[in-house]
TrEMBL record:
GO cellular component: cell envelope
Keyword set, alphabetical order: Coiled coil
InterPro entries reported for this sequence: UPF0194_transport (IPR050465)
UniProt source species: Magnetospirillum gryphiswaldense (strain DSM 6361 / JCM 21280 / NBRC 15271 / MSR-1)
Recorded superkingdom: Bacteria
SUPFAM superfamilies: HlyD-like secretion proteins
Stated name of the protein: Uncharacterized protein
Protein localization: Cell envelope
Coiled coil: 226-284
Amino acid sequence: MSDPIYVWLDVESRVLKASSVMETAFIAVNLAHTLVPYRQAALWRRDQGVLALSGAANVDTGSPYVLWLQHLLAGFRDDQPRPLTQTDGGAEWADWLPAHGLLLPFDGGSVFYARDDAFSEGEVAMLERLTQLVGLSLRALTPKRVAWPKPRGRKGWAMMAAGVLVALFPVTSSVLAPAESVAAHPVLIRAPLEGVIGRMAVRPNDAVTEGQVLFELDSTTLTGRLDVARQSLATAEAEYRQTAQAMVFDAKAKTQAAILAGKAEEKAAEVRLLESQLARIQVKAPKAGIAVFDDVADWIGRPVILGEKVMAVADETDTEVEAWVAVADVGEVRPGGPLTLFLNTNPLSPVKARVRSVAYEAAARPDASIAHRIRATLAEAEDKPRLGLKGTARIDGDTVPLIWWAFRRPLATIRQFIGF
């Protein structure tokens, strides 16, 4: 390894194989001594200051020597190798360095060597070559910084200003949601008593008139109970009459007659109750409209309890909008905000409405999604869509900058993953 060529190849190989900035800096200030003898060496970078010193494992950035050396090296902006002497460094040069120095610049910094004798042309050429190799290695190992494009000239500044104006241009935030035309003032038809539905007199969406029979409960159980109650009433009345006749001859019969009279009245009340229930097994429409329910087959033979909803009677033209807004978008919806309904049957003629209410809690939908129910009142001047029409609702919110409207969803998605 005494041949200079082999020495150079060894140093060059180490620089090329360096895996970090500090390893490259160490080679530049320490192993270069195998090529050219020197007493002191330092590597300086414009963005980091003195990065490495010969013979030192770490650099104390606050020491007087490092501060003076950093000030010295930062004062030269040459692109070519430059010999330095005490004249270039002032009176303090002799306190820190030998008589002769050599400054070798590279892109973003420089390498400085110092010794007692001046450097020859061959030594300068070899160290300059090494410095160039070190600079390339440092550039490759330094993490790249994202540089924002800088505007150049009036055209560049004008384009930048236009971009800022576009980003800050106010737009109305909006969300889309599946929607449907539903009854605004439906009349709920409930089971009048506990029983089993025996007959449905109407079909879904049938037009009904006031007083028309809608459905009827099975009367078998009530009829049987009424027959038993009537027989019990007849028996109680017969016992009472017999005892009332015996009161003329038997004083004890007066007490027994009062008890039997109360029993007969109890049986009569039971008969009247069952008769009234039997009269209510037919449920009639309280007003004209259409019958709104799912399917006849789902109700026939189905047991119901008192007050259970069976159907609704609604005016086909008295409608409003019901929309389901996703949980992530409900923050954009405000009561009183404008809503535009695009019906599937007529998407080119949107219907205007105003948000009336926003459900506080989200509810599960038939498609297994979770959403908030939105109710919106249609404008009086509008031709209200008939009941049951479906479409898509656009609900407008606050005015926000265009850049926020464009990046709101991506930012929300990122926050879900990184928690910020």
